[in-house]
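Reviewer 2 asked us to include a model.

Predict the structure of this chain.
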Amino acid sequence: MASLPNAAGAAASGSSGARPVDKEVDFANYFCTYAYLYHQKEMLCDRVRMDAYHSAVFRNAPHFKGKVVLDVGTGSGILAIWSAQAGARKVFAVEATNMAEHARELARANGVADIVEVIQGTVEDVELPEKVDVIISEWMGYFLLRESMFDSVICARDRWLKPDGVMYPSHARMWLAPIRTGLGDKKREDFDIAMDDWSLFVQDTQTYYGVNMNALTKAYRAEHEKYYLKSSIWNNLHPNQVIGQPAVIKEIDCLTATVDEIREVRAQVTMSIRMEARLSALAGWFDVHFRGSAQNPGVEEIELTTAPDEHGGTHWGQQVFLLTPPLSVNKGDNVNISFSMVRSKENHRLMDMEFTNELHELSGRKHPAVTTKMYLE
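Predicted model (structure tokens):
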């Protein structure tokens, strides 16, 4: 549930298994963003997001009518309110931040305060008086798993979902695709400007103050390479920038997934190129589906996709991962990608990634494999 580029993304409950000191840092660095109405408004203005969840609830009202619902990370409370309006008997709306006060106010203003009980706390710590039939949550971060909020949803599921209960959303997929973009050229230009500025700074400091700062140039360069060239870039791409066949790199069944399963994502895929172009980056996005379970299917499956869209897409946008150097590709070429994404050791809500790309031309020529390290921060 990301709304600002490279900012924390989902109105969430706490991460599972964190030590007390880690929780304090988590609240300072993550949850506080969601205590502000301006941030909630940005997410509530995402029509693709809103329409998908609204349709999922009201077109599948039998999953909610007379049932008990748990909303994990309720934020403003809108999913809890919709659940009540769809006929839920009881809705437990869990929210870690002081946004809980606004959620209570909205529940009263919309006449569902007798059904929606807002509980301020983390879902790992709260106690409910009964098991639930439905868990609903908007837990998705950039490229689906940034923020690790799904950990909390899994915790809630294992603690409180009935054996025949359903998850909203029920399934998720992560995608990669080859793209053309000028973002890499702009980032390289910005990096060169930053290094030129540093060079002048070193000269001036030596000239005016008699101190040689050049010993720090290597570290300064590494910092700026990471920021400009090795960090993913938030963007809303146009579909015509996708120059090859997108590939699914991860599928998740929200009813059965474990934290271990999502702690690392690894995949090997082949993407066929559709046109002559300059392959300058890979793009990552996700979709989620609301279809219930095999045991308890929904009336109508609803999809929420964050794929490139000519109308502007969603607040999640796509993550752009620059390839260095870019590749000249032609229709019929194949690009083999070996992909890995693991949680950052410094902050489990951020991701470290590595891509190895190998171009196989239609003519039979094979290019040497190139490995690129990237960061989703």
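The mean pLDDT is 91. Residues 34 and 256 are 28 Å apart (CA to CA). We have added this to the supplementary material.
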